[in-house]
Design a protein that fits this description.
The protein has about 100 residues and is of the alpha+beta class. The chain contains one helix and seven strands, in the order βββββββα. Pfam families: TumE.
Length: about 100
């Protein structure tokens, strides 16, 4: 994989139902080909699959992409400090796996 690159974009916004904390964020980790291999963001909503034929649709803005092809898994935003801690912990896990290869 080579050396990874972190990209962090944070913008303060008015609180909305999708972003009640008033922060729009995009934290990503890219490989040396600039492909995103990890991302925490709330830039777009993801649909949460519910079981049942007549269940309503639920959309979640806070989510994480754990692989290149991952379309997003819900992430529970607590605060900005916890977000950074979770992001860098995930980056370190990826780097540890790569260093063992």
């Amino acid at each position: 994989m080579g050396i990874g690159i972190n990209k962090i974009e944070v913008t303060r916004t008015d609180p909305t139902p999708g972003r009640p904390h008033g922060i729009r964020y995009n934290l990503t980790f890219h490989d040396n080909h600039n492909q995103r291999i990890l991302g925490f963001d709330n830039a777009h909503a993801i649909r949460i699959q519910k079981r049942g034929r007549y269940s309503g649709q639920i959309f979640q803005y806070d989510h994480v992409h754990r692989t290149i092809r991952d379309t997003g898994t819900p992430y529970e935003f607590v605060n900005a400090s916890q977000l950074l801690e979770d992001f860098f912990k995930a980056v370190n896990s990826i780097m540890e796996v790569e260093l063992r290869r």
